[in-house]
## 1
Amino acid sequence: MRRRWLVGTVALALLLAACGGDDDGGGAAGGGERQYKLTLIQGVKGDQFYVTMQCGAQAAAKAAGATLDVTAPDEFDASLQTPVVNAVVAKKPDAILVAPTDTKAMIPPLTQAKAAGIKLVFVDTTTENGAELAESEIASDNEEGGREAARALAELTGGKGSVLVINVKPGISTTDARAKGFEDEIKKTPGLKYIGQEYSNDKPEIAASKATAALAAHPDLVGIFGTNLFSAEGAATGLRSAGASKKVKIVGFDAGPKQVEDLDQGIVQALIAQKPADIGKAGVEQAIAALKGEPVQKKIGTGFVVVTKENMNDPDVKPFLYKSSC
Amino acid sequence: MSETREVPPAEVPDEVAPEPAGNGLRAVLRRRLTETTTWTFLILLGIVAGFAALRFQQFATVFNFRNIAADASGLLIIAVGMTFVIITSGIDLSVGSVLVFSGVIAAKVMLAIGGEGWGAIGAGLVAGLVAGLAWGVVNGVLVTKARVPPLIVTLGTLGMALGSALLITGGIDVRGVPLQLTTTIGIGQLGGVPYVVIIAAAVTAVGAVTLSMTRFGRYTYAIGSNAEAARRAGIDVDRHLIKVYALSGLLAGLAGMVSLARFATTTIGGHSTDNLAAIAAVVLGGTSLFGGIGTVLGTLVGVFIPAILQNGFVILGVQPFWQQVAVGAVLIVAVYIDQLKRRAQERGERR
């Protein structure tokens, strides 16, 4: 009996030791001044947008002599991100860079974080009261991204026919802004008729069925703007199965490896690429400025690059395609 | 349901017990259960001690434990219901979907009535609980009357409940439930303890007492040990199983209300693995998947092992993907140790 106790205890000790060791190896060499501890909480694990953001943030943290831990929930959902935020707050880093997964549901845990004396910087997404909670909100100007998409689609379609937006779901600050910007800008092209937005709930199969349904209802459909990866990709799948992929042009958002492949194969015709590495870099810089008591910029908008099959290998476009690892 | 009336031993004869009857069914059960739970509890303590040793000031704070408890409250409520189901040697895969469905129904009712008052909130909560209960009854009836295996029934209702929730909402989270619900039940505290933790603790306490001290609990064990023997002993097995699945559905509904209160949105995407998390917690807590053995207190421990691991790993800064690997490994290690222990015990008993 005593031996089994031993087995259990040793197994556990090994497990914990392994984890502890992992952490110790990650520390960066300190600079001359105080070494700030930062944590980046992404919206979801393993997404190339966030990986690219992480690359930018890590480079900036290294340059500033700060350490940066990165963590994320399994799914882009507030009920899964809340425990992660709570655990990070318990860790008491000097500042948290976070991409809130819901404009409302993430307010309580983030308010608690601020109350614990941790500086918050919101990257990409934000909350309803983001201006109060965060030292700085850094995101692509998503409305401008939507306008870029409208201009790209107007050019691709020749400015005649009906256009549709396939959005993710309501309540995501970024994608809602993209749809709004698109709606505003598309009206400037008199030949194009905006027929509204549909929601894919981030499921390609739903996006596909919404796209084919819209095609049935509006035979003059010439363009679709998918506000994120699955919305655009699902729309493309639906159009292909309906035999309309030549007639209907698709503009997608973001430039992950899969999207770039779709672009290369002619499944989508243009991508509005954000600059997530710039968001991560600016996030670290603003956090450190706030910690040092230096002035911060409350809102920072990072720009876009319109990627098409023609320009995707140009040296001034290529660096903006998203990365799977740093 | 919580009858505390003593049942004369004659009603549950010794043939129900899996063990050779020595000093009575209850004494045997109690001895066995306390011992298996102790093991996982020691593992939990070991994990807490380990993290506390590595990061004392960050990990071992009231603030941190309060948050861990609040985050685990929903899963704990589900897992209490799951404990009853698994002790009857059944399984309930539908809990996560039922949680979402109940949340959607409650939110829709609150929005339909409108306004901020407690009337709308109360009506929504009742509707949500009834919705959960209804799915539980459907599970129970299909398992007992239609004789479809529980794994299949609840796999079916998993899809049906989630599909119905998606149909009702068009796949979009329902938002805009009364703010009062969130500010009071959702994030409010009573004497420093969040309301959601109080709710989960109350469910656990009632569940533990019901399972260990009432006729309902003894029937649950008896059916899990040997359903045929229980039937011959005069227990209405079908009726009891329907009640057990109904309880699981009701508690999933309650967990849905807790989730709705905390997040003010239906979090449709966040519960696809709740069923597996609950089963893992129940098994970690020493409940046998073959039925007849288990405790609610064990499940309480089982819920907190992964919750504390996740929290501790984030504090240590372990890469997110490693957390899943480690939680899975701990599940296997914990059950392995438990098995070793149990085998030794059985050998000892047979002599």
## 2
Amino acid sequence: MKRLGSPIELTKEKELKEVMEEKGVDELLGKAKEYKKEIEIRGKIGRDLIEEISKSKKEPRWMLNLRLRALELFEKLPMPNWVEGIESIDVEEFYQYVRPEAQPVEDWNQLPDWFKEYYKKLGLPEAEAYALSGITTVFDSENLVTKVKEELKSKKVIFTSMDEAVQRYPEIVKQYFSRIFPMGDYKLAALHYALWSGGAFVYIPRNTSVINPVEAYFIIGSELEGQFEHTLIVAEDNAKGETSYLHFIEGCAAPVLKRFSFHNGMVEIYAGRNSQIYFTTLQNWGKSIINFNNKRAIANENAHVEWVEGSIGSKMTYTYPATILKGRGSTTRNISVGISNGPYIKDVGAKAIHVAPDTKSIIISKSISSGGGLATYRGLVKVLKGAKRSFSHVSCDSLILDEKSRAYTLPRNEVDEPTATVSHEASVDKLSEDQLFYMSSRGINEGEAKALIVNGFIREVLKKLPLETVSILTKVIDLEFSEVGGVG
Amino acid sequence: MALEVLNFSVSIGEKEILRDVTFRLERGETAILMGPNGGGKTTLSFAIMGHPKYNVSGRILLDGEDISELPTHERALKGLGLAFQNPVEIPGLRLSSLLNAISIKKRTGELDMSKIDPKVIVWAGRKLGEVGLDRSFLEREVNIGFSGGEKKRSEIVQLMVMDPKYLILDEPDSGLDVDGIRIIGNIVNDLKANGKGILIITHHAEITKFVKPDKVMIMLNGSIAEEGGVELIEKVESKGYKGYER
């Protein structure tokens, strides 16, 4: 048990299993609990609303100005029309800011009971104790628990909530915040910057490797709520021959909600020279969450950025982690495993922008759709002129488990450099009645057969993932199909 | 104790494939079901196993228990095993994972994907050797790139892990050379000695060179035309199935 850094794995297995078998992954946290809210803001998204949020946070003027610039862009930009399902989202229907009545603390025990219970169910206190070098949790719009352990302190790594970073490290934040993922990128990015609240900030000094992962965990506690958390990771440029290393894990969950809530989070990574940043997302939102997860990294000379996305939950998820390979010899790998089990949408993918020579990107996508699910891979590989000898390989495999479900692969390559090597492969497998009969003749029921086949399908990918990620993914898939998915 | 198939009729849509088939397979008995291609032999094996695509009337009793309404996987867990004539390919799934799953499901009644039983894998590796397959097949994806004969051998090993009370072997002798058929034949004789009931479906009876059946049934046009002893094999071999035509 102790080697596992996974919140879900650490949950008492029996309890988890009972919940899953009866109700499904989204009910991990059970019914939504009533809790007091100190501030709730909902209304027309305009100047007044944004000033109110900024004021309640006692923010410096420069951050308010940044929000207002974002608001202008939000008002100008069109609603994206490139994805299915998006037309049903009305961003003004949601509370744009919710502050629960609880003080940020460093100790789980100081939390009010109802929060404590959530975190216990997710196994976060154990995960923190055994496997992490730091954790921060965001509940609704604000960070609740932030714990910085000895490893981070002694190595002078800054790990704090994003809001606190604005107050305490304004110079660093000004230099990087919104500089990696521009607010004008598309309408919902602008909305994010106008309304952002909560999140994690990590600053890694040069030549510093953080051995144990850090984790950020996001919970949305109520329906009709918007969460706009922001994560910023900055790794300083390293000296020649030196390196730095960080593994950041983000997880998320929501209790059962009657109506929808909206997550529009963002991750920005600045990977300085020779740094290695691993970013793992275990997306296990409840089935009431509409999830946008905007992620972008800049990789400097010889830096390596790795995105891993296990996309299991949510009603709809749209995420396309991107790496801009800006420095010579920088590399990126992007591995995503998406499961749409039920009438849900996963629109996930990857982007790699090759700017400098000798850069390399590897993109591996595995999607599974079942029970009427839609899984789409949407990707972009762009090689700019002058990015000599760049190399990119994309492989996308889809597995469709029944007639009701769909999978699409939409890769795009734009190559302006003749010396670059860019390749792409794709496959689609469909589970057949004959395969199911074959397995069931061996005593394996339909749900178990699906779980086995899904596990086989993603086995090659799992080999490439950090250990703590693999065990959670395997477990979640097992549960997703063994009992719940069997009837779908 | 026996596997009993009683007044079994099977159709797909409007098309009737089997009509009023009745037979009995005792434990410790080897029966041969012969007949020309298209006569309904494979349909019989699928329907006994409970393939959902068929409309079935009649009953199946396993040691006296009516299993006619049970889904396929429950029939398997009760002790019914089928070696397929043309087993499907399963991309991504390793043979070792399948064997592990079969064993865990059989023993515990539920499948926990994170459990791996190394003993089963070692044991299965040895069984692969006994049927003439290299151990490396454990790491191969199920049936992918297997030759016809390799598939037959792999089917037998899967059934050995399942350890059913009654085995239906659909054309276990096709695609195998004489040495392969001898290996399978010897295994059948061992299983029989261990009290298993074995139904072998075949259309040219190669395997009867190594297995002496207790009973022979001839199936034509969806019905059992004749039931008897080994003399029926000689009859078919000398005259073909013409003698049964109406």
